[in-house]
Structure formats: C-alpha cells, structure tokens
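Thread amino acids onto this structure.
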C-alpha cells in the first residue's frame, strides 16, 4: 500500500516567477526505489492499465506543416481573442485540448485552454488563461462552443497580498462509467495558478501552482463543481490545499510544482499522472523532472478521496531516449486495440530563449500504471507507436496532443507560434490512429 497523507504543506519559502506559458513542460535517472515507488494496493491485471501490445509495430510518423496535411479544428462561436479595438490579441487561439466521448450519449466533448490579454477600462493589460468547452455531434467534423467552463477568477495571492486572477488551464476530462449501464460521472482536472493584475505569463508565481479536481454528472456541470486542491512542496497552503502530494513519498520532495494533469480510470481505480518540475534559482531543472503517478478510489466527493503514490512512470532516462531532457504534456488514452498509450512531448529548457523547447509528440505504450512503467520491446527499447511534429516550428516546436480512439479524428496536435510577447495556438487533426 502506498503512503497516505492529509497533512497540509508548510509555507513555501520560495516564491517563483516562472515563465510557463500554456502547458510548458522529465527527470534524472534514478534507482528502482525512487522510480517505482510503493504503489497502490494490487488489484490484479486490468484491461488497460496493465497491458501493452506484444507484437512490434511500425512507427507512424507525420510532419504537420499546414492545414492540407493536418486540418485545423475550428470551434463555432469561440473566436480567438481580440482587443476592444478589434485587433487580434498577440496571445490567442485554442491550445492544450482534451477530447472525450460520452459513453451514454455519444457526444464528443473537448475542453481546451483559451489564452488572451485582458484590458480593463482605464487599467493595465494582463494575461488571462481560461478553459473553454465545446461539443461535437458529428464525430468531430464540426465543433460548437458550449461555455467558458472555467473562466479566470478574481483572487488575492496569500503569499503577497497582491490582487489579480487565477488562471485555469491544461484541462483533462474523463468519464467514469460502470459496465452495468449506470449513470456516468465526469472527472475534471486542471492547473490553477495566479496572475497578478497587469502581469504576464512569466510573472505567475510558482507558489500558486496547484492541481484542481472536481466531479459532476456531465462536462457542462464541471464548471459549477467545487474543486479539491492538490499541492506540491512549493505551493502556498493559503490556496486551500487539501493534500500535499509531495508528502506521499520522500523522492517527491524535489517537486517544486506540478503541471499537466492526465487521468485514467480502470478497475475501479482513478489514476492521476502529473509532471513534477523542480525549480531553483536559475530556473526549471528539466533534467530532474519526471512524470509521477497517483491513485485513488473515486468514491464519494473528491474531498473524501485518499491518494496513494503509485510511482514514477518516466524520467530523464526515458526522455533522453526520445531526444529530450524531460517529458512534458502527458495525455493518457487507449488505442483502438485497448493498449494504454502515453502521448508525451520531449523537451528541454533553453536558457537563452527563456523557454521550453519541444521536439514533437511521441506516442508510447504503457505497461502499467499501478506499478508505473512504460512498455519496452525485446531489445529493451521503448515501444513507440507514433511520432508527430511540425518542422517549421523548429525554434520552439509544437505543443500538446490528445486522442479519442472512438472518433474519426486522429491524434490532435497543438501548433504554437511563439513571438515577442505573444503566443498563437491552434489545434490540428493529424489523422493518425496509433
């Protein structure tokens, strides 16, 4: 059984001003003790979280250079952000999407980050990131805006007393459905972080980074659900942190902040995977970052859930094998053959650019989440099913990916164009079914 904790974290001594725009992204090679962790109580093999494909598959690769190769997804009724004058905002677009099908209604739901620069009348400009929700009733051919699921909310930073807004970004949605046909319960996860009034993405303090989880009967109702807050060693407890996940195992002490939640449900267990990012005086230590997995039995309200540390899914060794220093932007999805997949982005921190540089998406088979490990072939190499990039974005690389196996849509890739003081994001259908 894993370590359990309901302890509140001590006040963080370090308040970080970290440039982490829209899901910027893990970890040093470690001993088996640190990598595997104690794990949740064994439940026996399960259909997806304990399974990978036994045969060697050809790796599918694609370079998404334009809409002809990878058509852009448009959401009717949710245009990119503009200024009051009508001019395009330098911070705009659709990014960091998660797509899931409702197992009862067949509707495809998509939640995504929606960045903007907000202009207060007579006041300063400030960056905002909120989460929007769209739906498709034709298997992803068209999308319609539903709501600003999690709009930025007015907040006061408990560490400094500064006023501003809490951004809600990098969403992940998951339906929990019983095989007996009972009601579906949806789980939502997101990153919350504080943007001071008039501040930019790079001014959001690391002490405000925390993961929010909530449940509801349908995706639309997640906007009204009360979240439970999961923190790290660097999160200020004034942000109503219910559980400090770094207290669940000694190897997690280095995790200054969490980012990019990914959810998977199997055998009555809900798995939550997060990027652990250590941060020091010189910036993010991507080489010591990692993807860590936690598990719970999602019974009752999220505030009553008890989390266990399952272990480390990947760190620096796996990232280096894929051409990066760390792994970021994890998405968990099942392939059409039932194999559990991890969609990840190898990355590194560029000191000169002050930005995370991405090398594109890698789609990997997962051997297990209950005792976390990626699948390897008979030669000991990671089982890679697909690779997606956008070579025209060489300086910074593309962004996150998502996948819903039951849809005609293939892997969805985020293209990101980063310029001086701005980021323009778009979502593209690669057509790849790994």
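Threaded sequence (434 positions):
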């Amino acid at each position: 059984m894993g370590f359990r904790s309901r302890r509140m974290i001590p006040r963080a001594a370090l308040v970080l001003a970290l440039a982490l725009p829209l899901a910027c992204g893990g970890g040093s090679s470690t001993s088996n003790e640190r990598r595997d962790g104690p794990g949740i109580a064994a439940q026996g093999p399960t259909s997806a979280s304990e399974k990978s494909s036994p045969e060697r598959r050809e790796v599918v690769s694609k370079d998404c250079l334009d809409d002809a190769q990878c058509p852009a997804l448009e959401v009717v009724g949710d245009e990119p952000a503009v200024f009051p004058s009508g001019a395009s905002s330098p911070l705009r677009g659709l990014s960091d999407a998660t797509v899931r099908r409702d197992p009862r209604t067949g509707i495809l739901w998509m939640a995504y980050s929606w960045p903007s620069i907000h202009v207060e009348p007579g006041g300063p400009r400030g960056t905002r990131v909120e989460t929007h929700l769209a739906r498709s009733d034709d298997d992803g051919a068209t999308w319609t805006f539903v709501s600003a699921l999690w709009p930025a909310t007015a907040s006061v930073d408990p560490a400094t007393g500064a006023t501003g807004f809490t951004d809600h970004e990098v969403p992940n949605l998951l339906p929990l459905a019983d095989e007996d046909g009972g009601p579906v319960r949806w789980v939502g996860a997101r990153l919350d972080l504080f943007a001071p009034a008039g501040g930019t993405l790079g001014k959001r303090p690391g002490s405000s980074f925390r993961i929010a989880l909530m449940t509801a009967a349908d995706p639309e109702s997640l906007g009204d659900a009360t979240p439970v807050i999961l923190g790290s060693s660097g999160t200020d407890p004034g942000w109503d942190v219910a559980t400090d996940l770094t207290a669940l195992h000694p190897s997690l002490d280095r995790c200054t902040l969490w980012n990019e939640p990914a959810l998977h449900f199997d055998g009555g267990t809900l798995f939550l995977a997060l990027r652990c990012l250590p941060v020091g005086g010189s910036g993010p230590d991507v080489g010591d970052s990692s993807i860590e997995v936690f598990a719970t039995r999602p019974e009752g309200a999220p505030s009553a859930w008890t989390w266990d540390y399952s272990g480390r899914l990947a760190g620096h060794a796996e990232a280096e094998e894929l051409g990066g220093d760390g792994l970021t932007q994890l998405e968990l999805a099942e392939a059409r053959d039932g194999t559990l997949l991890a969609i990840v982005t190898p990355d590194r921190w560029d000191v000169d650019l002050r930005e995370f540089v991405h090398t594109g998406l890698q789609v990997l088979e997962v051997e297990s989440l209950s005792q976390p490990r990626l699948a390897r072939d008979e030669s000991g190499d990671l089982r890679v099913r697909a690779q997606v990039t956008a070579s025209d974005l060489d300086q910074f690389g593309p962004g996150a990916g998502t996948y819903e196996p039951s849809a005609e849509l293939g892997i969805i890739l985020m293209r990101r164009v980063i310029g001086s003081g701005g980021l323009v994001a778009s979502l593209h259908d690669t057509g790849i079914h790994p």
